[in-house]
Amino acid sequence: MKSRINIPLFALLLIIGVVIGIQVEKIFSGDNLRESIRKFSDVISLTGKYYIEEVDSQKLVESAIKGMMDELDPHSVYISAKEFVQVEESFRGDFEGIGIEFQVVNDTLTVVSPISGGPSEQLGILPGDRIIEIENKSVIGITNDEVRQKLRGKAGTKVSITIIRPGSGRKISYQITRDKIPIYSVDASFMVDKTVGYISISRFSETTYDEVLQALNKLSKNGMKKILIDFRGNPGGYLNQAVKISDLFLDGKKKIVYTVGRIKDFDEEYFASESYPYEKIPVIILINRGSASASEIVAGAIQDWDRGLIVGETSFGKGLVQRQFELHDNSALRLTISEYFTPSGRNIQRPFDNKKSKKDYFSETLKIEDAEGDNFFHQNEKDTTKPVFLTLVKKRKVYGGGGITPDYIIKNDELTELSQNLLKENIFYSFILNYLDTYGNRVKSEFGDDLNKFRKEYSIDNSVLNSFISYAKSKGINIKEDELQKDYSYIKSRLKAQIARNFWKNEGWYAVLLEEDNQFKKAVSLFNDSESLIK
Q: Active-site residue 251, yes or no?
């Protein structure tokens, strides 16, 4: 009798549990996820069956995914399979190919520079070489995408090219074995003077820490006592690399950054852990509106611990952390999973929920007005709505909610429309390419491998400048005298830097251009102030 009563009761309880479970699932699935997926599937199916024209269902799905991302924060994005290959190369720090930087100039594939350590450099291919054939077929009129398709490939495979070398006019044929080619995140490192070292870091990839440590060790052997790190235009990258680079300059177990997310598994704290010989040397970091994410983590940690000076313009203001999820077709979602905070507790993310579009959000940085000058105690900030924090040693006022504001604010001069058009139309490079065809051997014989001698003694004289102006006019550039006079020094510096890059690669390029860089020059002059922070 007892058994008969219990079985129906158990069944009744089971039914009630299932019903409750279904309702709970609906509650916790947001807007009924299954029904939403069914609706989406129905729309795709109906469109494919009945739309007036044939539709590409894959294209529709990708557009829908991008639309979903538009409803989230500006840094959550969908990456197509084609884009994903390039993104992975950039952050992995290598690709497979023949190892050249190139430009297509007047329909001709031109070697800008062979990449250090790559197969092209080892075979003796030089800057300025014109590649006229690939696999015995003419490549006059080739596009950038076609260059990558033909010259990239699996390491160990071979490709034949034929070049014409300026000055000799003869054809030279090479068979090149493709290899893994490094993509460097340290663009340049050299001694500014007898004690100041300079490092330019363009991204935070898998190899950035190793590259920076190698650069620091090299500069230290050359007498470096102070370091200037240039993060201008650095969009960020891997958080762990930002932590390791911060650790190079922070002693003890100082907190570097921490993250907080909706899911507690994404909450993390990162601390300095290793000892390095660079923990007491004066540090200055250069930033601008293009410095974001991992760049801001390093700058924020250095500023919060009063470890060095931040110089330049207010940074981008990206305080969100993304995790990348690869999809079955080799595309990927990069989703924001948490916010990061500097050691003092600042989240430097700029507000985005009041923007009409992602385009408005990204262009907003161009409208930020910084008051130039000494901002050590951060009295120049105009937005009083930002949350206030204190640095951890000197107890200086700093702000969250809108990027890292420098301790010394200085702007670089804006270029006139003339210089912008010269850059856009690639006039500097194409002119110097022709100039070196005629005078390259003379420059080489006079300066050899001595970059410092070139920096001090070589100048763009009036005859070269006049030739450049005539060349620019022949290419349809409208030369306005007032704009020419305003950008006179920049134009001469750019031409000289283009020559330097031909012989000394990025080191020559940066070493020359920085001579006319207001932010750089001001930063170098502030090392006495930087030294006072660490005493």
A: no
501 with 352, same domain: the answer is no
Reported pTM: 0.87
383 catalytic residue (yes or no): no
Q: Which of 244, 254, 255, 318 is catalytic?
A: 318
pLDDT of residue 535: 64
- Domain with residue 199: its CATH number is 3.90.226.10
CATH number at residue 150: 2.30.42.10
Q: Which of 78, 94, 85 lies closest to 145 in space, CA to CA?
A: 85
Report in angstroms the alpha-carbon separations of 127 from 49, 97, 164, 350: 56, 17, 12, 42
Domain boundary among 389, 412, 435: 412
Could you tell me the two tokens for 123? 């075979």
**220 a catalytic residue:** no
For residues 58 and 187, what is the distance between their CA atoms, to the nearest angstrom? 39
Which listed residue (187, 247, 304, 370) is catalytic?
A: 304
Same domain, 195 and 223: yes
pLDDT the model gives residue 9? 45
Query: Which stretches of the chain drop beneath a pLDDT of 70?
Result: 1-31, 355-356, 382, 534-535
Overall domain count for the chain: 3
Find the domain containing 501 and state its range.
417-516
Which residue in the block uniquely carries the two structure tokens 């201008």? 232
Find the catalytic residue in 202, 291, 293, 315: 293
Residue 154 burial by Cβ neighbours in a 10 Å radius (0-12, 13-18, 19+): exposed
Identify the pLDDT of residue 17.
47
pLDDT 10s digits, 200-212: 999 999 999 999 9
Within a domain: 502: yes
pLDDT tens digits for range 232-266: 999 999 999 999 999 999 999 999 999 999 999 99
CA distance 281 to 302: 12
Instruction: Note whether 245 and 352 are same-domain residues.
Output: yes
Q: Are residues 426 and 495 in the same domain?
A: yes
**Co-location of 116 and 254 in the same domain:** no
